[in-house]
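=== Structure Prediction Worksheet ===
Name of assembly: unnamed complex
Input type: mixed (protein and possibly other molecules)
Chain count: two
Listed entries:
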Amino acid sequence: MGSYLDADLRLSRGDFTLDARLGAERGEILALLGPNGAGKSSALRALAGLVPLAAGHVRVDGHDETTTAVEGRPIGMVFQDYLLFPHMSALDNVAFGPRCQGAGKTEARRRAGSLLERMGLVEHAGARPGSLSGGQAQRVALARALAVQPRLLLLDEPMAALDASTRVEVRARLRHWLEEFDGATVLVTHDPLDAMVLADRIAVIEHGGGGEQGTPAEVARRPRTPYVARLVGLNLFRGNAEGTTVTLEAGAEGKAATVRLPEPASGPALVAFPPRAVALYAEPPHGSPRNVWRVYVDGVERFGDQVRVHLAGPPDLAADVSPAAVAELGLVRGKTVWAGVKAAEVESYGT
Amino acid sequence: MTTPSPVTAPNAPGRRLRARSGRAPWILVLPALAAVAFLVLPFAGLLISAPWPDMGQRLREPDVLSALWLSLVTATVATVVSVLFGVPLAWLLARAEFPGRRFVRALVTVPLVIPPVVGGVALLIVLGRNGILGSHLDAWFGLTIPFTTAAVVMAQVFVAMPFLVISVEGSLRGADRRYEEAAATLGASRATVFTRVTLPMVLPGIGAGAVLCWARALGEFGATITFAGNFPGSTQTMPLAVYMAMQRDPEAAIVLSLVLLLVSLAVLVTLREKWVNT
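=== Predicted Assembly ===
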């Protein structure tokens, strides 16, 4: 657990419950990744104090903020659609926080002005939020949050309000600003790309619970839930290992498939391999040691310059093949094929 | 059946081609025309039967001017008082959680539905010289409220403030509270949130409410005549003057009515541009 931010968030509203432990070091960017409605935003709002905790704690930089009112917390927050005050100029939006903290009007405006300058927004200082582009509004919102000199920066879906064409540039710039910030940052997103690019650590929030946490590389290489596996594009199976063989949990038809591993293991295990490691054959293949399953085609969709083939087993899996292979094998729905994966391509790890 | 001519906006820069969405059904058009006629005809009658030749001289009569001045001043003061007290009340009703909130809201709307003359009687019973509060005011401070200009304002506030409260409460409920949350995350206290964020955002609602409130106060009759009486110069507002004139000189009543009509229209049109259509 991080020591700079240490939060244990437990709350319930109606039939929704959240139970998540989050931590981040100073200077670290933690992404909360999860599907819509999983409780990411609730977690963020709980950190801000906008929703009360039923139990747990929020500690920032050694101070217990659990019962501190919103306006007293050392936080800066960037909301999903930024919520810039429409009746104030960009400059006054940014100066609002310093003013509330007791800075004089001149001092607050000077601080706001220098923040806007650093963000390349000097010429928009007098503009009303309504006349700013999405990327500019996001920067003003970030400047406004940073102007209160927070120790914890909270960003709620910072990319969601932007159109696809500006995202790449804005994402890179956001990464730059966040790296300069010396407190802890918590960022909520449903987009795995945002999480991978922006975050130092990822915490997956699913069904109101904190799931796996780790660096983007760890989460991407060894997913623990089907949701994360799908996000990072891996085939993921749960099973029981004995020697170099994992017996997968039985599918809907009750038949259990097995997977051969490169190295021996034992006990409950997760097995993951990428769809591009899967080769498809019209006839049962011979030769090199590989896992081969008899499956049939459940669906075919375009995926970049490849074609993703959804296969029904057991095991159910996805394979990425070239368009030429689709034509050659005549991959139409219902067709029976053999799917092969080299043991060396299979990653297995404890549950 | 007649063919209704296409309706264009009064300020439209020119006629534009638009897709026809079918004619308005007569079952709606006929009652609507009847309603318009019913609402407009009385005013036309006023204009037709006005004593135009000696209009100028009648307008210069001191009673007319003093009644008009009293009406404008009292309605404006009543509106200011209503805003000062009504906006905080609307905020409490819309934002604060307290026991009996629904009951308080119901109470606030009572003056909207009771006949104003009943309100005047109630005010007199409480604040009259022998009233529950009024007797103490008289004994301790030598203050007498009924039948003064202050009573005119109080009667107007009583009947008009609920319009403002309801209107402002509606816009507070409609305002996006997430802006208030954003302000709180920036360190703003609840009072600062109200003055710097909430208030500017509901300003159009307050403006609209104030216009309604002013118009209602300007037209107030029943509570005024009961609680404040009918003394020219101090409590005789325009509606009372119209009523009195009607008893002895209907032509004078027409003149007064036209003046009242013009002044209210002028004010409402001016403010409407500014507040209501934002």
